[in-house]
Amino acid sequence: MDNQTTWLTAPSDVILPEDEIHVWRANLDQESWITKNLEANLSEDERARASKFHFERDRNRFIVARGLLRRILAAYLKQEPAMLHFCYGPKGKPSLQKTGTRFPEVNFNLAHANGQVVYAFASRRQLGIDLEPIRDDFPTIEIAKRFFSSQEIDQLLELPCDERQEAFFLGWTRKEAYIKARGEGLHIELDSFAVALAPGWEARFLHGVEAEWHLVSFSSEGSPAALVHDGTKCSVRFFMTPSSD
User: Fold this and answer.
1) What one-character-per-residue DSSP string does 136-175 give?
2) Kind of pairing, strands 116-123 and 205-207?
3) Helices marked H in 25-118 — which ranges?
4) pLDDT average, residue stretch 228-242
5) For a designed S-S bond to 185, which of 51, 91, 201, 241 qualifies (C-beta 3.0 to 4.6 A apart)?
6) CA 212 → CA 19, 58, 94, 139, 195, distances in Å?
């Protein structure tokens, strides 16, 4: 896992060059007044989805995740957050609904876990991002044998026992980020491709993935995370939202 990720405070005026990808992180547990302000920009269908959560914490986290997504996208597009409209692919991958020929093409993806959210934004690139906190009680070898490729299982078993938990979650985030980037859901079998997952190794695809796809590993608040994108390799910048300091 890359523990050298440098998270910058977001600038007041954000610009997304075509040769950059921006990753943002934020805390989903916000004060009530912040949550209410973010909720005011949600669409009717987003409010309806929020209302279906049984627990208030989960409902508020959904509101914050979607509200911040709107706020960041609006900053890139110079639009009002409430004016943005989303559409969804066949497997549920969200994207911006274009409203005119001059509407900039900004693609995005998001993931959340344990009260934090990460977003990825790029121009004219397909993106997938994933985040998973390391769980010491998780049956990594058992789950890996069910879902990982034989090459990935061999990597895990060759590692010292005290490195296997981290390696599993490094692998899991990398594989999930690729599947999300493709937007095909479970139609891509997890064992149909392989990633390098040993701690300290370069994050890369080993087989089963076309050369146009690239993998970036990073950490967010100590949790393994991964970004996958297509096109040429490019620089990635990491930002914190003001409310996540």
Assistant:
1) TTS-HHHHHHHHS-HHHHHHHHHS-GGGHHHHHHHHHHHH
2) unpaired
3) 32-39, 44-51, 56-77
4) 94
5) 91
6) 15, 37, 22, 33, 15
CB 34 within 8 A of CB 63: no
The residue written with tokens 């034989």 in the block is 150
Put simply, whether the predicted model's pTM sits higher than 0.85 gets the answer yes
Helix (H) or strand (E) holding 9: strand 7-9
> For the residues 43-57, what does the mean pLDDT come to?
96
Q: How confident is the model at residue 187 (pLDDT cuts 50, 70, 90)?
A: confident
pLDDT in tens, 56-72: 999 999 999 999 999 99
> What is the Cα 127 distance to its own chain's centre?
8
Residue with tokens 């967010």: 220
